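worker-3 :: picked Short-chain dehydrogenase/reductase 3
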Amino acid sequence: MTLALPLLHTGEGLTIDSLYRLLQCLLKPTVAVLYPLAVLATHREELIRRGLLGLEDVWKGDWRVKVAVGVLGLAVGIKVNDWLSSGARNNWARDSSWDWEKEVVVVTGGSNGIGRVLVDKLSRKGIKVAVLDVVEPAPRLLPGSRFYRCDLSKKEQVDAAALEVVKLLGHPTVLVNMAGIVRCKTVLDSSARDIDLTYDINVKAHYYTAQAFLPEMIKQGHGHVVTIASNTAFIQAPLGVSYCSSKSSALSFHEGLTLELRHTYTPTSLARRIRTSVVCPGHVKTDMFTGLDQGPWMPQWAMPSLSVDTVAGLVERVVLSGESQYIIEPLAAKIMPWLRVLPTWVHAFVHSLAKDAMTGVSQVQKEKGVGVEKKQL
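worker-3 :: tokens ->
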């Protein structure tokens, strides 16, 4: 079934998402069935005395019964929709063979940020993890995790790292494409290097890692490819065009790979058992987006910035679920895909609210010299 943050999650404090999670809990069929029962309990004597005739009178005379039954119907409808969506995401093919003492997880960009926290979480559970990154992790990885220096923008290095992973840990069964970069510049100011690096890491690396690890997954009929995209896959922002469009490409890659596993690769019975998940978080409090300004129209209680631990925890749960997932967090980010079908003027208005979001990030990157071309002397 579809994953969500726990009811008592407090990583971002009390926000509208807290109320949303409570509403989700109240709309579970196992909870909602209590509502009509509670109303009927107030008419207990009449129901005992008159039986079904009393039930008919209660239905006609007490509006609370109709509301309670309506809420129960809504809860059942949500549950059925969730079941159908989960079945479709997983190609109606079950795979109950997950054994986390034997699985091998590859995490790209696992040396720092969200990736590093995810690697540590999985390692603490005794899962073997291979970290593919160009930067060596500091502090050192926990026992059970191995670092493989790899420039993900170069296919030959990805292939070489894949051979080493297989040699030392075995064939990976989970691939988490976590690595990503951002260059906050306008379209006209972006250098060829900025554009190439953004797409090499945020998009093309997904192809390279899939080509390296997916064939064996298909052969075994067992595996999971997790794509880390972003809510910027659904919306654009000045100074962030290359990043946002690359995340749109990552999301599209996930959708395309899902379709190919469902319809193209053979044997179909095995390929359809491979899980594909995508995680589209909103703003995450990492160094990569230092300076981001959501503006007064998006206060933290309405669209909270997610902590690194929150996102890493979500990805961990996606991996451990052994099922295909489609995650968008927080609640406000779930609205973003719907912007595509709203009138143009609504779309334009929402974009105008975020027109300065990346300005601070761009300024921080300029101060740090990020993306500055070094001239040969």
